[in-house]
Design brief:
8-stranded mixed sheet; 2 domains; 5-stranded mixed sheet; Rossmann fold; 16 strands; alpha+beta; 20% strand; binds magnesium ion; BirA Bifunctional Protein, domain 2; 422 residues; binds adenosine-5'-triphosphate
Length: 422
Amino acid sequence: MKIQSVRGMNDVLPADSAAWQHVHAVAAQVFAAYGYGELRLPVVERTELFKRAVGEVTDVVEKEMYSFEDRGGEALSLRPELTAGVVRAGIEHGILFNQQQRVWCTGPVFRYERPQAGRYRQFHQLDVEAFGIATPDVDVEVIAIAAQLWKRLGLTGFELQINTLGMPGCRASHRAALIAYLEQHEAGLDEDAKRRLHSNPLRVLDSKVPGTQAIVEGAPKLLDYLDEPSLAHFAAVKAGLDALGIAYTVNPRLVRGLDYYTHTVFEWVTDQLGAQGTVCAGGRYDGLVEQLGGPKTTGVGFGLGIERLILLIGVQKVAITPNTPQVYVCRFGATAERQALQLAESLRDRFPALRLVLNAGGGGLKSQLKRADHSGARYALVIGDDEAAAGTVQVKSLRGEGEAYRCRQSELAAELGSRLAL
Ligand code: ATP
Ligand code: MG
């Protein structure tokens, strides 16, 4: 029996990896442009971390985690998101106490969901977090980072939805009103919603079940329960976005279900990816660090699904320079083979960005040129006995840019340098 990949876990083949490399390179550049430093973290953490950080009464922890016991009996999980690990590491290394930190993180995360377009069991996130800054200016900053990323990737058509959860204090009275309302409509709620009605009623607001959604339309709105400082924080976030010309809509149903979330929540949504339209989601979680046993430290950040970004790059036909070779070197005969070997290496020394394949495995002219064409290269260089003796090389366009011609080996670097703009 052939062994196949695990359902919902995908391979990225070389033909498709250019888009991934591009996203990573642009993201790393954008995050650095705002002074964020990269954290690299383990894929496996203690299960307890996610129970506390993501919350026990959530889809992720209740149904989606890959949890297991290791051989030493430790309860571990593949990370279902990145923020929990970032905070765990921040506390562990003492970099969150009484200071500001701007960090980012990326890598695979795992959730046992029903695989479909834009939804997988192993997927990848980009994560941005700012700690130790309580003011709304940094909420604006993290939203602006995502906007800057869209701009540099050439992506358009996002809608930014924002909302505020205010402070835990003003949420209590809303919670009571919400529970009373949901109890009145309990018969129409789905099973998850019924269960969360008392344990985590806010979470019912972002249900995806149509019947529950219809009930939620009429639910009491958190915005109507906010106190003055909460409203001021929200107003400042909106003013910052206005100043940057970042358009948004206020969506009162946008929530995070846990007590440690405060103030701003936001999502970048597109209508170009069907049901899986949320590309980036984030907000402020001023209580999380403390919840995980750290010092009282504020935090704000977002998580972004790279697969959805890649899908969008495809839908919007963003041009990505492929990583295919630019030059393929064909060689025949002992002297020519040695010369070509040295020439290829010296070209790579000279032009670090040059993508050059040296023929290996022998073959006649026809089969080597076929490989050259298949590689996607723009030029084939041909060195046989005649060229070796004369110290020349044949330059042959594989993409219809004129006739083949001979060039001195000593002048080849200059020739390729100008043709390929190296
Ligand atoms: P959704 O509502 O689509 O399930 P979520 O609220 O569970 O998303 P978050 O936990 O906020 O998602 O994760 C941040 C981002 O990661 C999402 O906005 C999305 O782009 C991406 N994402 C989440 N789950 C998946 C998945 N199973 N496959 C691919 N990308 C995902
Ligand atoms: Mg989900």
